[in-house]
Amino acid sequence: METNGTAGRMLSGQVALVTGGVRRIGRSIALALAGAGADVVINARSSAEEAETVCREIEAMGVRAMVHLADVTDDDQVARMRRKVLERFGRLDILVNNAAIRQEAALTEMSLAEWRGVLSVILDGAFLTSRAFLPAMAGQGYGRIINIGGVSSHTGASRRAHVAAAKAGIEGFTRALAVEFANCGVTANCVVPGKIGGKRSATSGESFSLHGHEARPIVGREGRPEDVAAMVLTLCGPAGGFITGQSLHVNGGLFLT
């Protein structure tokens, strides 16, 4: 079950873009938004075949879908994606900045290129896509920006200094967007997943430590991508209109704010 059956078509007529939208959390968010009636643009850097598969799943829900391959760290590629999205749909209402690299490396062995690579995808990517689409959102007087954070920026994590730093930065970026664009009808929030189960790539960093020990959510299970998607859907719907500049934790009590 990938969509929220209670959502109805509350996002009908809206257009959403999900970066890193082909696997796990990104895919679940894309399908949840489509299930609520939004047309969805799937972005990935490569993974064309997987992106097309998600696109077909979305179209089967009776809404429009589009795949656009682009490196979100490349200004020219993001500008081209903006042009293509606006040419096809004429608007963008929801931007989900999910693209990320979750590599692991000991700090003393981490190269500057590795450090910058992770920060570039997470922070530069969110900056470039937000900068590209915010004028359209502000012009139409409505928009929802959802940035995907990470619990390691709150708990710390061995071998993930670059990821924790980038995810902490995305929360500050979210608050800045919320303040700057509040008078334009645009909200910005950060959804912070905890330990989300399921298959990851070998370099993604499946586990992390909390206070030196392997952490377990107090609800007794790992999270699912659909749990994160449900929070994103809430923030994008009518119930989320009075929420902005916030970090919303979806972690089953793994980390208590």
From TrEMBL:
Pfam families: adh_short_C2. InterPro entries: KR_dom, NAD(P)-bd_dom_sf, SDR, SDR_fam. One of its GO terms (molecular function) is oxidoreductase activity. The keyword Mitochondrion does not apply. It comes from the Bacteria. Belongs to the short-chain dehydrogenases/reductases (SDR) family. This is 3-oxoacyl-[acyl-carrier protein] reductase. It comes from Paracoccus versutus (Thiobacillus versutus).
